Amino acid sequence: MTAAVSQSKTDNIEFQGRKAQRADSRERRRAILEATLRIVVRDGIRGVRHRAIAKEANVPLAATTYYFKDINELVCDAFNLHAQDSIKHTEELEESGFAALEKLKGANLADPQIFDLLVNALTNAIMTHIRSQVESRDRRVIEHTFKTEALRNPVLAKTACIPQASTTGSIVSFFKLLGSKEPEADAHIVHGVILYMEYQLLLGQEMMAIEMAHKSIRRMISQLLALSVKK
């Protein structure tokens, strides 16, 4: 199920630039996009220029204009590439959540001990995901840079919604299996809190130490699960 979900989401991503047919051409095109992402991390969107990209990717200047008619198209496709890769990362969170539920399949979640086991398992799975996200600092810088740019660019805004919807959709599926009466609302709460925790930890805020993040996630999961198993 996971692979099918991810595949359908990535299919929604529409690359703007000239398509590459040959393998070497595809490699050069990807090198240009990856160079663009590195520049975004280092210098922000304003640093994205054809000459800077060509130098970073070690390709002729003409290559950047061959595949992309302008900087806007290049920036959009760089974000598309980032979004495509990000969707694949949502599988880990989805799989860990379903694995925790599978271990307790058929168990009485109203039993305090069973309930506590599930809360701990889900809390640990989410915290593992958050740590992984925070450790991938460059990817988070890219993500937040493009989210800001998407507020001014409707093409980017469309793509920005795809990986977010993929993650939320995975969480919705989990809550549906759990029997939640409001799986969509529960999923938005969980995803929103995860994104907030990630951002605060990236900023290095003392108020959001990893211990506080763990405590907050556990409290959220405990309360949402209590609503789901309540008869």
From TrEMBL:
Annotation: DNA-binding region: 49-68
Q: Determine if Glycoprotein is one of this entry's keywords.
A: no
Residues of the HTH tetR-type domain: 26-86
What are the protein's UniProt keywords?
DNA-binding
Compositional bias segments (type: Polar residues): 1-10
InterPro entries documented for this protein: Homeodomain-like_sf, HTH_TetR
Highest taxon in the source lineage:
Bacteria
What name goes with this protein? TetR family transcriptional regulator
Instruction: Give the species this sequence originates from.
Output: Simiduia agarivorans (strain DSM 21679 / JCM 13881 / BCRC 17597 / SA1)
